[in-house]
Amino acid sequence: MRNFATPKNIEPPVLRAISQNLMKTKISLFLSVLIAAIGLAGCASMGSSNTKSLLTASGFREKTPETAKQKELYAAAPAYKVQRITANGKTFYAYKDEKNGTALVGNESNYQQFEKLAVQQRIAQQEYQAAEMRRDAAYGWYGAYGGGIYGPPAYGPPGVRYGAIR
Questions:
Q1: Which of 35, 45, 51, 58 has the lowest CB atom count within 10 Å?
Q2: Parallel, antiparallel, or unpaired: how do β-strands 102-106 and 61-63 relate?
Q3: What are phi and psi of 53, to 5 degrees?
Q4: Which of 78, 72, 118 has its CA nearest to residue 97?
């Protein structure tokens, strides 16, 4: 039967190494959460410019309201939202960019392309966030179990170094 290390028989340097690893893990987790929160706040402010970029890439054209009727419809439309509009039997989509005083206008195929690009971007963003989370989680495991040249001595009875190169 193996003699597993307990707090009573762990050497003080090993205890220090364990507590330092735990503290590093807590700090990296806190920083990861903080960075994610800042990133999400940044994403919220970039939402309208991102939507505009996707619409432009999908083939939507920027138009400025010129006639009195167009100006009236533009004023009534909600800002920074894609709206479906049917007029004279034709369906088209419009996005009001209130800051520039313009509207991005596209047809059904443009809108389908926009939806496709938005889904692709969402998937890419989720994959990136998952990779970041995996990297941050893995960071806390490096050297956690000791093992000779890769970290502090492994846990065991005082004076015995498991994992050391012989």
A1: 45
A2: antiparallel
A3: -65, -45
A4: 78
Tokens 């890439």 sit on residue: 57
Do the strands 90-97 and 102-106 form a parallel or antiparallel pair, or are they unpaired?
Answer: antiparallel
85 - beta bridge partners?
92
pLDDT in tens, the chain (166 residues): 555 555 555 566 666 666 666 666 666 655 555 565 555 544 444 466 789 999 999 999 999 999 998 899 899 999 999 999 888 889 999 999 999 999 999 999 999 999 999 999 999 999 888 888 887 776 666 555 555 555 555 555 555 555 555 5
What are the tokens at 134? 């995996």
Residue among 108, 109, 1, 122 nearest 51 (CA): 122
Residues 6+ apart with CB under 8 A from 110: 55, 58, 59, 60, 93
Runs of H (alpha helix) within the chain:
12-57, 68-76, 108-139
Residues 6+ apart with CB under 8 A from 38: none
